[in-house]
Amino acid sequence: MIQLYRPGTSILHRLPAGPKLAGLAVVAVAVSAFAHDVWASSGVLVGVCALYALARMPWRVLAAEVWRLRWLVLVLGGFLWVFVSPTAAWVSTSRVVALILLASLLTLTTRMGDLLATLRRALRPFRRWGVDVDAVAMTISLVITMIPVVASFASDLRDAQRARNARVGIRGIVPLLVRTLRHADDVGDALAARGLV
Predict the structure, then answer these.
(1) DSSP character for 127?
(2) pTM of the entire predicted model
(3) What is the per-residue pLDDT for 1?
(4) What residues does each domain of the chain span?
Protein backbone atom coordinates (compact mmCIF):
# COMPACT_ATOMS: atom_id res chain seq x y z
CA MET A 1 0.00 0.00 0.00
CA ILE A 2 1.34 3.45 -0.87
CA GLN A 3 1.96 5.53 2.23
CA LEU A 4 1.26 9.18 1.44
CA TYR A 5 1.74 10.58 4.93
CA ARG A 6 4.61 13.05 5.29
CA PRO A 7 5.68 13.60 8.92
CA GLY A 8 5.65 17.17 10.16
CA THR A 9 4.97 19.48 13.10
CA SER A 10 2.62 21.99 11.46
CA ILE A 11 -0.77 22.86 12.90
CA LEU A 12 -2.42 20.65 10.26
CA HIS A 13 -0.24 17.71 11.24
CA ARG A 14 -1.17 18.20 14.90
CA LEU A 15 -4.86 18.70 14.20
CA PRO A 16 -6.85 15.52 14.93
CA ALA A 17 -8.16 13.52 11.99
CA GLY A 18 -11.80 14.18 12.94
CA PRO A 19 -11.77 17.96 12.35
CA LYS A 20 -9.80 17.46 9.14
CA LEU A 21 -12.32 14.95 7.80
CA ALA A 22 -15.19 17.21 8.82
CA GLY A 23 -13.47 20.15 7.16
CA LEU A 24 -13.03 18.20 3.94
CA ALA A 25 -16.72 17.27 3.95
CA VAL A 26 -17.86 20.84 4.70
CA VAL A 27 -15.63 22.33 2.01
CA ALA A 28 -16.80 19.77 -0.54
CA VAL A 29 -20.46 20.57 0.16
CA ALA A 30 -19.85 24.32 0.24
CA VAL A 31 -17.88 24.30 -3.01
CA SER A 32 -20.56 22.24 -4.73
CA ALA A 33 -23.36 24.45 -3.45
CA PHE A 34 -21.92 27.96 -3.57
CA ALA A 35 -18.72 28.31 -5.64
CA HIS A 36 -20.41 28.94 -8.97
CA ASP A 37 -18.53 32.05 -10.11
CA VAL A 38 -14.95 32.82 -11.05
CA TRP A 39 -14.09 34.69 -7.83
CA ALA A 40 -15.49 32.06 -5.49
CA SER A 41 -13.88 29.11 -7.26
CA SER A 42 -10.58 30.97 -7.55
CA GLY A 43 -10.75 31.83 -3.85
CA VAL A 44 -11.26 28.18 -2.94
CA LEU A 45 -8.27 27.14 -5.05
CA VAL A 46 -6.03 29.84 -3.54
CA GLY A 47 -7.24 28.88 -0.06
CA VAL A 48 -6.34 25.23 -0.60
CA CYS A 49 -2.88 26.22 -1.85
CA ALA A 50 -2.48 28.36 1.27
CA LEU A 51 -3.27 25.30 3.39
CA TYR A 52 -0.27 23.54 1.82
CA ALA A 53 1.86 26.45 3.02
CA LEU A 54 0.22 26.24 6.47
CA ALA A 55 1.11 22.54 6.55
CA ARG A 56 4.72 23.56 5.79
CA MET A 57 4.75 21.40 2.70
CA PRO A 58 7.59 22.24 0.29
CA TRP A 59 6.30 23.99 -2.81
CA ARG A 60 7.56 21.07 -4.87
CA VAL A 61 4.96 18.87 -3.12
CA LEU A 62 2.12 21.16 -4.20
CA ALA A 63 3.67 21.47 -7.65
CA ALA A 64 3.86 17.67 -7.94
CA GLU A 65 0.21 17.32 -6.88
CA VAL A 66 -0.88 19.91 -9.46
CA TRP A 67 1.32 18.33 -12.13
CA ARG A 68 -0.39 14.98 -11.58
CA LEU A 69 -3.70 16.65 -12.37
CA ARG A 70 -2.58 18.34 -15.56
CA TRP A 71 -4.42 15.96 -17.91
CA LEU A 72 -7.60 16.23 -15.89
CA VAL A 73 -7.29 20.01 -16.18
CA LEU A 74 -6.61 19.88 -19.90
CA VAL A 75 -9.36 17.39 -20.74
CA LEU A 76 -12.08 18.71 -18.43
CA GLY A 77 -11.16 22.36 -18.92
CA GLY A 78 -10.71 21.98 -22.66
CA PHE A 79 -14.02 20.20 -23.10
CA LEU A 80 -15.92 22.83 -21.13
CA TRP A 81 -14.04 25.66 -22.84
CA VAL A 82 -15.06 24.39 -26.29
CA PHE A 83 -18.60 23.20 -25.59
CA VAL A 84 -19.79 25.53 -22.81
CA SER A 85 -17.71 28.65 -22.08
CA PRO A 86 -14.29 29.71 -20.78
CA THR A 87 -15.91 30.82 -17.52
CA ALA A 88 -17.58 27.44 -16.98
CA ALA A 89 -14.27 25.74 -17.80
CA TRP A 90 -12.41 27.72 -15.13
CA VAL A 91 -15.11 27.44 -12.47
CA SER A 92 -15.69 23.70 -12.81
CA THR A 93 -12.04 22.74 -13.28
CA SER A 94 -10.76 24.87 -10.41
CA ARG A 95 -13.39 23.42 -8.06
CA VAL A 96 -12.47 19.83 -8.96
CA VAL A 97 -8.74 20.53 -8.67
CA ALA A 98 -9.21 22.29 -5.31
CA LEU A 99 -11.13 19.35 -3.83
CA ILE A 100 -8.62 16.77 -5.10
CA LEU A 101 -5.75 18.85 -3.71
CA LEU A 102 -7.56 19.11 -0.39
CA ALA A 103 -8.07 15.34 -0.24
CA SER A 104 -4.38 14.91 -1.06
CA LEU A 105 -3.42 17.29 1.73
CA LEU A 106 -5.51 15.27 4.16
CA THR A 107 -3.58 12.12 3.24
CA LEU A 108 -0.26 13.98 3.44
CA THR A 109 -0.90 15.27 6.97
CA THR A 110 -2.86 12.38 8.52
CA ARG A 111 -1.68 8.89 9.38
CA MET A 112 -3.85 6.09 8.04
CA GLY A 113 -4.28 4.67 11.55
CA ASP A 114 -5.62 7.98 12.85
CA LEU A 115 -7.99 8.25 9.91
CA LEU A 116 -9.34 4.76 10.49
CA ALA A 117 -9.78 5.30 14.23
CA THR A 118 -11.72 8.52 13.62
CA LEU A 119 -13.98 6.93 11.04
CA ARG A 120 -14.68 4.00 13.36
CA ARG A 121 -15.71 6.35 16.16
CA ALA A 122 -17.93 8.40 13.85
CA LEU A 123 -19.65 5.30 12.45
CA ARG A 124 -20.04 3.45 15.78
CA PRO A 125 -23.75 4.41 16.23
CA PHE A 126 -24.58 2.54 13.01
CA ARG A 127 -23.57 -0.79 14.57
CA ARG A 128 -27.06 -1.16 16.03
CA TRP A 129 -28.42 -1.42 12.47
CA GLY A 130 -25.98 -4.17 11.56
CA VAL A 131 -23.44 -1.97 9.76
CA ASP A 132 -19.90 -3.38 9.68
CA VAL A 133 -18.22 -0.24 10.96
CA ASP A 134 -14.67 -1.51 10.43
CA ALA A 135 -15.33 -2.37 6.79
CA VAL A 136 -17.02 0.96 6.07
CA ALA A 137 -14.25 2.93 7.80
CA MET A 138 -11.58 1.06 5.85
CA THR A 139 -13.44 1.64 2.58
CA ILE A 140 -13.83 5.38 3.13
CA SER A 141 -10.20 5.83 4.14
CA LEU A 142 -9.02 3.84 1.13
CA VAL A 143 -11.19 5.93 -1.22
CA ILE A 144 -9.72 9.15 0.17
CA THR A 145 -6.14 7.92 -0.08
CA MET A 146 -6.65 6.44 -3.56
CA ILE A 147 -7.58 9.79 -5.14
CA PRO A 148 -3.99 11.05 -5.44
CA VAL A 149 -2.70 7.54 -6.21
CA VAL A 150 -4.98 7.10 -9.24
CA ALA A 151 -4.19 10.65 -10.36
CA SER A 152 -0.50 9.73 -10.22
CA PHE A 153 -1.15 6.58 -12.27
CA ALA A 154 -2.98 8.62 -14.91
CA SER A 155 -0.13 11.12 -15.10
CA ASP A 156 2.52 8.39 -15.46
CA LEU A 157 0.58 6.56 -18.17
CA ARG A 158 -0.05 9.75 -20.13
CA ASP A 159 3.67 10.55 -20.00
CA ALA A 160 4.45 7.04 -21.28
CA GLN A 161 1.96 7.44 -24.14
CA ARG A 162 3.45 10.78 -25.10
CA ALA A 163 6.97 9.32 -25.04
CA ARG A 164 5.84 6.67 -27.54
CA ASN A 165 3.87 9.22 -29.60
CA ALA A 166 0.84 7.03 -29.00
CA ARG A 167 -2.50 8.50 -29.87
CA VAL A 168 -4.80 8.83 -26.90
CA GLY A 169 -8.32 7.58 -27.50
CA ILE A 170 -10.92 5.66 -25.62
CA ARG A 171 -8.47 2.75 -25.44
CA GLY A 172 -6.13 4.97 -23.42
CA ILE A 173 -8.29 4.35 -20.36
CA VAL A 174 -7.61 0.59 -20.43
CA PRO A 175 -4.01 0.75 -19.09
CA LEU A 176 -5.20 3.04 -16.30
CA LEU A 177 -7.93 0.59 -15.34
CA VAL A 178 -5.48 -2.32 -15.44
CA ARG A 179 -2.94 -0.52 -13.28
CA THR A 180 -5.62 0.63 -10.83
CA LEU A 181 -7.07 -2.87 -10.52
CA ARG A 182 -3.60 -4.34 -10.06
CA HIS A 183 -2.93 -1.81 -7.30
CA ALA A 184 -6.27 -2.72 -5.72
CA ASP A 185 -5.21 -6.38 -5.73
CA ASP A 186 -1.92 -5.45 -4.05
CA VAL A 187 -3.78 -3.44 -1.42
CA GLY A 188 -6.15 -6.36 -0.85
CA ASP A 189 -3.21 -8.75 -0.43
CA ALA A 190 -1.55 -6.35 2.03
CA LEU A 191 -4.76 -6.07 4.05
CA ALA A 192 -5.23 -9.85 4.03
CA ALA A 193 -1.65 -10.36 5.18
CA ARG A 194 -2.36 -8.11 8.14
CA GLY A 195 -5.61 -9.93 8.93
CA LEU A 196 -7.73 -6.87 8.13
CA VAL A 197 -9.99 -8.62 5.60
Answers:
(1) G
(2) 0.70
(3) 39
(4) 11-193
